[in-house]
UniProtKB/TrEMBL annotation:
Superkingdom, taxonomy of origin: Bacteria
Main subcellular localisation: membrane
NCBIfam families with a match to the protein in the record: ATPase-IB1_Cu (TIGR01511), ATPase-IB_hvy (TIGR01525), ATPase_P-type (TIGR01494)
Protein name: Cd(2+)-exporting ATPase
Record's keyword annotation contains Oxidoreductase: no
Catalytic function, reaction form: Cd(2+)(in) + ATP + H2O = Cd(2+)(out) + ADP + phosphate + H(+)
SUPFAM superfamilies on file: Calcium ATPase, transduction domain A, Calcium ATPase, transmembrane domain M, HAD-like
The keyword Metal-binding appears for this protein: yes
Membrane topology according to the record: Multi-pass membrane protein
Family note: Belongs to the cation transport ATPase (P-type) (TC 3.A.3) family. Type IB subfamily.
A Pfam family that the UniProt record links to this protein: E1-E2_ATPase
Record keywords, A-Z: ATP-binding, Cadmium, Cell membrane, Ion transport, Membrane, Metal-binding, Nucleotide-binding, Phosphoprotein, Translocase, Transmembrane, Transmembrane helix, Transport
EC number: 7.2.2.21
Amino acid sequence: MIGFIHKHKKSITFLAGFLLVLALVLNFTGHHDLRQFTLITATVIAGIPIAVKAFQALMMKAFSIEMLVTIAVIGALFIGEYVESAVVTFLFLFGDYLEARTLEKTRSSLKSLVDMAPQEATIIRDGVSVTVPVEEVVEGDRVIIRTGGKVPVDGKIVTGQASLNEAAITGESVPASKKTGDSVFSSTIMDTGYLEIIAEKVGDDTTFAKIIELVEEAQESKSKTEKFLNKFANIYTPAVVVLSVLVYVLTRDLHLSITFLVIACPGALIIGAPVSSVAGIGNGAKNGVLVKGGEVMDRFSKVDTLVFDKTGTLTKGKPEVTNIEVFNSHEEQDLLRLVAQAETVSEHHLGQTIVKEAKSRDMALDQEPEAVNVIKGNGLTATVEGRILTIGNRKLMNAENIAIPAEVEAYAVNREKAGNTAIFAAVDGEVAGIFSIADQIREDAAPALAQMRKNGIKKIVMLTGDNQHTAELVATELGLDEFHAELLPEDKVAFVKQLKQQGHVVAMAGDGVNDAPAIATADIGLAMGEGGTDISMETADVVLMADKLMQFSHAYSLSKATIRNMKQNTFFAVGIVAVLLAGVLMGSVHLASGMFIHEASVLIVILNAMRLMGFNRKQMQQREKELEPVQV
């Protein structure tokens, strides 16, 4: 029975509406008795779904809005106010229908994401190309994607090149060029080209599947405002019943007390906050920003201090070896080969940059390094081809008692002043060379930071493990308030804790790997999640899928707009209820008209929240077009 009512609720609503119109016609034609029967029938038909929902809430020991309406309708039938009872039940169901429709629209970003998921994949098995459902693709399969096709899984390109629309992942509509060795992600669309990839993540493990899961969880999670309103409803509903009884005791007017009961329903108040939260999170997902729930939105809107890692956050995170200087009669090629061999086991981006340089020179890195010891934040030591290598910064050289000659130190300082990171490489306890590695500041860094200052950020700090000179160049270029260089991961955590103790509400942005501890410590952790790395999605509260700082600015202003929208809806809802109740007590608002205004207020708060779906999109696109490259 309950399942039938829920399934046909829309039909029940429109049947009740038809009966109301029929009753109006019968009134004009003088069929009074038939009109009364039609109104009672409409009341019963529309009232059953409301009463069922009230009963279900009561079984859960909760006092719902439906309970107020059910009591009021029974009272209206008792005193013979059939027009009011029919109108109230129909308007309540119709308001519920409009609420469901508009809520569905606010969730359209998630629905559009789900619709992007590919259904089939073309793979090569036993030398034959076959098309299979995407669920049947397994890790290691060789997958073919042609022009116009969707990438069915996450993987690495082994053959071909193409232009891919990655809007489903990054929110960016500008196609990205892909070639052999690059990674591709499920649900991105190939504009032109041909690719063969090896499947690395399939099914629920793909980046796209995780995005959908995160957005679903976020839209279900509640902000502090929503949690408060839910508790408030459980107190408010019985309080209204008591007050309506008090009105009857004081006035002896049953009609007035029933009207008071119906008009006091806090529908707009209860729906206002959740719909704002859903619309805000949906806007973020549509623009490549994953915000993990209403509570995150709430905290994010209060942030006044930003802390950034440098490499991969304020800079592009795609460093290149700009120079290799050798000392003590070492050969450049030999030193590069030895260092690259040792760095093959390193996950640090600077180490991988050296490996990439060696591979670009067609060096065979087939020797497994031995006795590897990674010193977090400083470098590593290893044995390669019988030689003991020490690779890292000055702190590591000092810790290993390796002397840095004056001319080597002078060279390193000059390279750092020019914007390079100097990596010292020692062989058998003697400095053999310096690798100069340079990165570029993100094009959108300066305008994004300026925009966030405009929106209320008071302090911007950079924490980096890089050298003092390079850090100073970046900080000066971007006009940061503070910077601290040559820090270990634990130093960053300590600094974030210190800021919080001073009363700042801190957002920490990093690459989601080396900065995970500091990201987890901050009030809001934000990860530059290129393609959505697992650790960035798990650790951070906010993930930028396109690695663009302008998305950070958008997320921050969106959080403020979402909380502002919640407050607008709350104040409006409370104001409407107060005005209506005052009107009831003064005799100027009646049951049917009051219920109509009440349901209209529900629709208004929903429409107000829906404005968030289009928030700031045009401005974001315009600012991205205006960006000019900035280099260090």
